[in-house]
Specification:
The protein is α+β, with helices and mostly antiparallel strands. The protein contains 15 helices and 11 strands. It has 3 domains: about 10-20 and about 55-175, Triger factor/SurA peptide-binding fold (Orthogonal Bundle); about 200-300, Chitinase A, domain 3; about 305-405, Roll (Chitinase A, domain 3), CATH 3.10.50.40. Helix content is about 45%, strand content about 20%. One of its GO terms (molecular function) is peptidyl-prolyl cis-trans isomerase activity.
């Protein structure tokens, strides 16, 4: 296994919505007041202490407190840039967070039982690396940030500990027993070679298992997740948080596949109609509901123009605070006219000075890494030509000038070694899910 996905609540944008809110009592049913004769004016004989850490669950004797849940929820809301959610969504999120904390506790306990615990020093090292490399903060700054959003370093460190513990367990107890034969790899390799030129899809999946008892509930969960994704939620985060497929640990990513590998005609048809960046679902299939996200599409064994490596000059002007829309439009028009008069990249630097613009050069950019809206435009440019101006009053206006392009070579497809690793990872993921199910089954969990 590779380096574990560190602190998913902060690295990606999660979402909420997998558990249905409690239903109202059916018409004609007796209320609690009728049955229990509860007075309308309830006066509690004791007051709750806000500083008391009230247990939410006890997992094999380890307590998960309401504060633990609060801090993890705060991490997710901050990563999702959501300060206000409905009470129903908050309740669903809290239930899912509690489940995740129970799983983390089981993973940490199992690592300790197997005598491969994660040390505080290892957790601190990963936490410090996350703070400085991912968030560009000092350790003190990271603490201040987490406290400001209603969370804590302890909450993030607990998640790191769980992920490191699980990675360690899989390395010892699962990976050594996963075998992929050379014959299997050879068959897969020959199949790929025979399929050169056919379409291949990189698909993300979120799968919610359902049966006849909970079908309606799971359908509602899937619809809620779909709504959040369409509103801008992170697919990777939703998959990691809620998917019950083995791909949840990798953000739902199935990798590059042919549609027949989905092994379901409904999913095949739904995926075939997608373009990169589109979602479809929930699609009801045997065993539950699926949501699919088309990450990318290519032809097997064929060069993809988007893999071209280009040399670009970015020429940009900014607008001072207080600039009116009219003045910005006037300056943008003059800028566009000036850029259009530049005769190739050799004149770009001097022309930028005359235009009062800044210029930045980068000689090693793949077209694929640029925003989708610019990819097609750049691929149609000749060397020395520029994109149309783009930007806003807040961000300024800029163009990209193409100064060179190295077209990609014909793709040879994955090597036998790459196929071997991919097949091994798939089997490890499947066994990991069974391992976690066994831990849940044998656990003693008491809910408060």
């Amino acid at each position: 296994m590779g380096t574990p996905a560190l602190a998913a609540a902060l690295l990606v944008t999660p979402a909420f919505g997998p558990v249905r809110a409690q239903e109202a009592a059916p018409a004609g049913a007796a209320s609690a007041d009728d049955i229990l004769n509860i007075p309308a004016d309830v006066q509690l004989m004791t007051r709750a202490d806000p500083n008391k850490r009230r247990a939410t669950a006890r997992v094999n004797g380890t307590i998960i407190t309401g504060t633990d849940v609060d801090h993890r929820v705060a991490l997710i809301l901050a990563a999702n840039q959501s300060s206000q959610i409905s009470p129903e969504e908050e309740q669903r999120l809290r239930l899912q967070v509690l489940r995740n904390l129970i799983d983390e506790t089981l993973q940490i306990q199992e690592a300790e039982l197997q005598e491969i615990p994660v040390t505080p020093e290892e957790v601190d090292q990963t936490y410090n690396q996350l703070a400085t490399e991912r968030f560009g903060r000092t350790i003190e700054g990271m603490t201040t940030y987490l406290t400001s959003i209603g969370s804590s370093p302890a909450s993030l460190k607990r998640q790191i500990q769980g992920e490191l513990a699980w990675d360690r367990l899989l390395r010892r107890n699962v990976e050594p027993f996963v075998n992929v034969s050379q014959e299997e790899v050879g068959e897969s390799y020959e199949r790929i070679q025979a399929n050169k030129g056919t379409d291949e899809y990189r698909i993300g999946e979120i799968f919610l298992a359902a049966n006849s008892t909970n079908r309606a509930e799971k359908a509602q969960q899937a619809a809620q997740i779909m709504e959040q994704l369409r509103g801008g939620g992170s697919f990777i985060a939703y998959a990691r948080q809620y998917s019950q497929a083995s791909t949840a640990a990798v953000g739902g990513d199935l990798g590059w596949i042919q549609l027949a590998q989905l092994q379901n005609p409904q999913l095949e048809q739904a995926a075939r109609e997608l373009t990169p960046g589109q979602l479809v679902g929930p699609v009801e299939i045997p065993g539950g509901f699926s949501i699919l996200y088309l990450i990318d599409k290519r032809q097997v064994g064929m060069a993809d123009p988007r893999d071209a490596v280009v040399s670009l000059k970015q020429i940009a002007i900014d607008f001072a605070p207080g600039t009116s829309q009219e003045e910005a439009q006037r300056r943008a028009a003059a800028f566009a006219e000036g850029v259009a008069a530049i005769r190739g990249c050799g004149e770009a630097d001097a022309a930028a000075v005359k235009l009062g613009a800044e210029i930045v050069t980068n000689d090693d950019i793949t077209v694929r890494s640029l925003p989708e809206a610019l990819q097609g435009t750049l691929l149609n440019l000749n060397v020395g030509e520029s994109t149309p101006p783009f930007g806003s009053l807040e961000d300024g206006v800029r163009v990209l000038m193409l100064c060179g392009r190295d077209d990609p070579q014909v793709a040879s497809g994955p090597s036998r070694d790459q196929l071997m690793r991919q097949m091994e990872d798939e089997r490890v993921n499947r066994r990991a899910q069974r391992y976690l199910r066994d831990l849940r089954r044998d656990a003693v969990v008491e809910y408060n």
